[in-house]
Amino acid sequence: MSIQIQGLHKAFGANEVLRGFSAEAAEGETLCILGGSGSGKSVTIKHVVGLLRPDRGDVVVDGESVVGMSQEELYELRRKVGYVFQFAALFDSMTVTENVGLGLRRIRGTTEDEIRQRVEECLAMVELEGLGDRLPSELSGGQRKRAGIARAIATQPSYILYDEPTTGLDPITRAVIDRLINRLKKELGVTGLVITHDMESAFRVADRMAMLYEGTARFFGTPDEARSTDDPVVRAFIDGRPELLEGVT
Ligand SMILES: Nc1ncnc2c1ncn2[C@@H]1O[C@H](COP(=O)(O)OP(=O)(O)O)[C@@H](O)[C@H]1O
Ligand SMILES: [Mg+2]
C-alpha cells in the first residue's frame, strides 16, 4: 500500500514543471510534498490518480504502474484513493449529506439506507454530526474542509490525497485539520499524501517530507532530517528566509 513517485517529467508547452521528481509514501505513512506556489504540487498529485499523464516517469500505487493503467483500471484505482481537493470543491447546491454521499452513489448495488448510514458515520468521524442538512455556504471554512475530507473517506479508501488542506484557514482551524489527518491515518490505516506550503502543518503531519523545487526533489527525508539540513533552499522554506535562495544553484 505504498505510493512511489518515480522520476516524473511533465511540461506544458515550454513550461517544464516536473523534471524528474521522485518521492515515496510507505504503507500507513503520510508523505508531505512541500513547495512554493506554482512549483508543481497539484500537477504531481494529479499524476497519482492518472488525471494527468507524465511525459516520462511513473507513479506506482500498490505495486501497479498508473501510466500502464487502462481507463477501467484508473476508475478502479480512484476508488481506492480519496482525493481532498483544494478549496474543498463541494457542490454549492447540494447539502453536506448529498456531497458526502456522491462517491457511494456511484457504487452499484448500494442502497439508500446504506448510503445514509455511511454518510452519518463519516460526518461523525470529522466531527460534523448533525450538520448534514446544511448547504456548503452555511459552513465555516474549516467545516467545509472537513466535509471535503468526509467525502473522500466515504468509499473507504486505502489512500488519501490532500491538496493544501490548511491553506486559507486560521491557525486554530489548521491545527484541527492536522489533528484530523493524523487521526484518520491511525484509525483508518490509510497511506497519505499531503501537499502544502504550510511548514508548521507539514511538521505536524509528515512521516516523510519531499521538497519540490525546480521540478525535482531538492530534499526527501524525515522531518528530523529536514530540521537539521544545511541545504539553503530547504532552510529558506523551513525558516521562512527567502534571502537564502539568492545565488543558489
Ligand atoms: N493543465 C495545465 N495546463 C497548463 N499549465 C498547467 C496546467 N496545470 C498546471 N499548469 C502549470 O504548472 C505549474 C504548476 O502548477 P501547480 O501544480 O498547480 O502548482 P502548485 O504547486 O501551486 O500546486 C504552473 O505554472 C501552472 O500554471
Ligand atoms: Mg496547487
Secondary structure: elements and pairs:
Blueprint: E1 3-12, E2 15-25, E3 30-34, H1 41-48, E4 56-61, E5 64-65, H2 71-80, E6 81-84, H3 96-105, H4 112-125, H5 141-153, E7 159-163, H6 171-188, E8 191-196, H7 199-205, E9 208-213, E10 216-221, H8 223-228, H9 232-239
Parallel strand pairs: 3-8, 3-9, 6-7, 7-8
Antiparallel strand pairs: 1-2, 1-4, 4-5, 9-10
Helix pairs in contact: 3-4, 3-5, 4-5
The structure holds adenosine-5'-diphosphate and magnesium ion.
Please provide a written account of the structure.
The protein is an alpha/beta fold and 249 residues long. The protein has one domain (3-91, 159-245): Rossmann fold. Helix content is 38%, strand content 24%. The chain has 9 helices and 10 strands. It has helices at residues 41-48, 71-80, 96-105, 112-125, 141-153, 171-188, 199-205, 223-228, 232-239, and strands at residues 3-12, 15-25, 30-34, 56-61, 64-65, 81-84, 159-163, 191-196, 208-213, 216-221. The strands form 2 sheets. Strands 6-7-8-3-9-10 form a 6-stranded mixed β-sheet, with helices on both faces. A 4-stranded antiparallel β-sheet has the order 2-1-4-5, covered by helices on one side. The longest helix has 18 residues, at 171-188. The mean pLDDT is 93. Residues 41-42, 86, 163-164 line the site of magnesium ion.
The major pleated sheet works out as:
6 strands, mixed
The general outline is globular
Mean pLDDT: 93
The poorly predicted ranges are none
For the biggest β-sheet, the strand order reads: 6-7-8-3-9-10
**Structural class by secondary-structure content:** alpha/beta
The count of DSSP E runs of length 2 or more, i.e. the number of strands, is 10
Q: What pattern of helices and strands is seen along the backbone? A: EEEHEEHEHHHEHEHEEHH
Radius of gyration: 18 Å
Ions, cofactors and other bound molecules: adenosine-5'-diphosphate, magnesium ion
**Going by CATH, what is the homologous superfamily?**
P-loop containing nucleotide triphosphate hydrolases
Cα(first) to Cα(last) distance is 36 Å
Return the domain count.
1
Helix content: 25-40%
Tally of individual helices: 9
Task: Name the quaternary structure.
Answer: single chain
CATH fold topology: Rossmann fold
Can you name the CATH architecture? 3-Layer(aba) Sandwich
The amount of beta strand, in percent, is 15-25%
Q: Can you identify the CATH class?
A: Alpha Beta
